[in-house]
Design goal:
Elements: E1 2-6, H1 12-25, E2 34-37, H2 47-57, E3 64-69, H3 71-85, E4 90-96, E5 109-113, H4 116-123, E6 130-134, H5 142-145, E7 151-155, E8 161-165, H6 166-176
Parallel strand pairs: 1-2, 1-3, 3-4, 4-5, 5-6
Antiparallel strand pairs: 6-7, 7-8
């Protein structure tokens, strides 16, 4: 199993911060098999380029769990669907602030949004298995750079709202899929 972390189009330090904050909160994250994909090394918005990169760098029998941010959500949903269409396993996609990206697939999809409007309007383009939105709202890059400080609401399968941070939500999902 490999966790694919796919950034948006921004300073790679923000992606490093995202990973570091998850590692600080949960030491098991240190042992996870993680492949980080950042722009401009790979055009993260391109499913074709992303899938080519994965094909070269991942065991074809590996199952993948994607964590993608912003423009990286565009490439990740396409690459994940292509990966699965070839008989390979995708456990889930965790889409962070992929506003305007239709997220429809045969694997679980989880959305995190930096505000309620983005959460609400994104759900019109594909219902999430579970979701999180920031409350109070934060800037777009903050949810990626500082997930441990981004408080909001986790909407779980039962319809309950749970107060937590974006990092708590992501780490809970990784535990659910036995990744940490």
């Amino acid at each position: 199993m490999t966790i694919i972390i796919c950034s948006g189009i921004h300073d790679p330090d923000l992606t490093n911060n995202f990973i570091q904050h998850l590692k600080i909160i949960n030491q098991k994250f240190l042992a996870a098999n993680i492949l980080v994909i950042t722009y401009p090394k790979i055009p993260v918005y391109s499913p074709v380029h992303l899938e080519q990169f994965l094909t070269k760098n991942i065991n074809q029998n590996d199952s993948l769990l994607f964590i993608a941010f912003s423009a990286g959500v565009v490439g990740s949903i396409g690459a994940a669907r292509n990966w699965q269409s070839k008989g390979r396993k995708v456990k889930a996609l965790i889409a962070i602030d992929g506003w305007g990206v239709p997220l429809i697939a045969d694997f679980p999809i989880y959305r995190l949004s930096h505000d309620y409007f983005t959460h609400w309007s994104s759900e019109l383009l594909g219902k999430s298995t579970e979701s999180f939105y920031s409350q109070p709202e934060v800037e777009h890059l903050t949810i990626w750079n500082s997930p441990h400080q981004t408080w909001g609401w986790w909407l779980n399968k039962s319809g309950a709202k749970i107060r937590c941070t974006a990092a708590d939500f992501v780490l809970n999902l990784l535990q659910k899929y036995d990744e940490i």
